[in-house]
Amino acid sequence: MRSSIIALLAVLSLAASLPLPADQDDPRLDDLFEELQQLDTRRDQRAGAIQAQIWHIWYLHDDAEVNEAMERGLKALAQDRHEDAVAAFSRVIELDPGFAEAWNRRATTYYVMDRYEESLSDIERVLELEPRHFGALAGRGLCLKALDRKREALQAFESALDVNPHMEGVYLEIIRLRSELGQAV
Asked: How many structural domains are present in the chain?
């Protein structure tokens, strides 16, 4: 799991170097989500590129101070300096409480710190701001699973897969949980 988070952070750091300001209200997202839904198979290679574009749009902000604080948070998280990451993402939230990705990054940090209830609280805010945030939906599933709330975790993972059917790890979590709950796989 930690290596997946670090790989995702690397992709986002690369995306952050691109100059286009964006956020969860960017009109390009509708087309990207539609494109993601129209791909034929869960393993379609184009899905990765579309997902990266979506993450890129979610991540960037038009305020330089916000972007700098996000970068500080990402670097701190990648270096396992979790309290510093929480502080940086909290600063972004202070600067722009409507920036969904700041809430998502802090939720991710709380998850890594095993602070699942705090993570879930931040995830709820992410989903209020961007209901299609498949990362937050999957994160909700991970938190609920860690809290041994398997049925709720399964629902969260299924919601994530409804939004983005190209998340192999989420698909595997669904299979595992259905098996554990005695449901048809």
From this structure: 1
Supply the angle between the helices 2-16 and 64-78 in degrees, to the nearest 10.
150
Burial of 170 from C-beta contacts in 10 A (0-12 / 13-18 / 19+): buried
> Domain with 114 in it: what CATH number?
1.25.40.10
Reported as a single tens digit per residue, the pLDDT across 128-147 is 999 999 999 999 999 999 99
Q: How many residues does the chain have?
A: 185
DSSP 97-118: TT-HHHHHHHHHHHHHTT-HHH
Label residue 42 by pLDDT band (50, 70, 90): low
The three-class DSSP label of residue 113 is coil
Cα dist from 160 to 67, 74, 76, 88, 126, whole Å: 26, 23, 27, 27, 13
Amino acid at 144: L
What one-letter code names the amino acid at 69? A
Which residue segment(s) compose the domain that 48 sits in? 2-140
Residue 105: inside a domain: yes
Token pair for 107: 């939720």
